[in-house]
């Protein structure tokens, strides 16, 4: 099935299956268990998307937790930045850089361009061959081609090196 980025981005269904996420309430706020950092974190909308994605990567894509890095800190032009999620290959090189947005962030063409610009800046440091963006409802993957440009992956996922 060959899908365009526009058709992928307009589908309004969760891109991740249902997972049993651990939630607890403390002092009137909800927290979600982060399986990578092994601690409770405030359940913000973006964090909910990130935790669903982590479960998807580990359970469905069979990516070991040891190859995932959450909120990796980098310095970009002297400013500290945090990348949402990085997938490493078995040679410890970045394979994919992932940017998660809250579910209410609509991926209009302008917003997609904004998020890709953000993730591309981070990727100036990492040089990952694949970039993925998601808001939980929508998902898009872009892979580096032989000309050094990123191209949209209609399948929604990349082929690991």
In short:
Helices cover 25% and strands 34% of the residues.
Could you please describe the fold and organization of this structure?
- By secondary structure, the chain is of the alpha+beta class.
- The model is unreliable at 1-11 (pLDDT under 50).
- The strands form 2 sheets. Strands 4-5-6-7-8-9 form a 6-stranded mixed β-sheet, with helices on both faces. A 3-stranded antiparallel β-sheet has the order 1-2-3, covered by helices on one side.
- Strand 5 and strand 6 (94-100) form a beta hairpin.
- 26% of the residues are buried.
- The radius of gyration is 16 Å and the shape is globular.
- The longest helix has 18 residues, at 109-126.
- The protein is built from 3 helices and 9 strands; from the N terminus they run αβββαβββαβββ.
List keywords for this structure.
161 residues, 3 helices, alpha+beta, 6-stranded mixed beta sheet
List the helices and strands and how they pair.
Elements: H1 5-10, E1 23-26, E2 29-34, E3 39-42, H2 45-60, E4 68-76, E5 79-88, E6 94-100, H3 109-126, E7 130-134, E8 139-144, E9 150-152
Parallel strand pairs: 6-7
Antiparallel strand pairs: 1-2, 2-3, 4-5, 5-6, 7-8, 8-9
Number of beta-strand segments: 9
Order of helices and strands: HEEEHEEEHEEE
Q: Report the principal-axis shape.
A: globular
Strand content: 25-35%
Q: Determine the structural class based on helices, strands and strand pairing.
A: alpha+beta
Number of helices: 3
Q: Walk across the major sheet and give the strand order.
A: 4-5-6-7-8-9
Low-confidence stretches: 1-11
> In angstroms, what separates the terminal alpha carbons?
23 Å
Note the main sheet.
6 strands, mixed
Rg over C-alpha atoms, rounded to the nearest angstrom: 16 Å
Helix content: 10-25%
Instruction: Determine the oligomeric state from the structure.
Output: single chain
Average pLDDT reading: 86
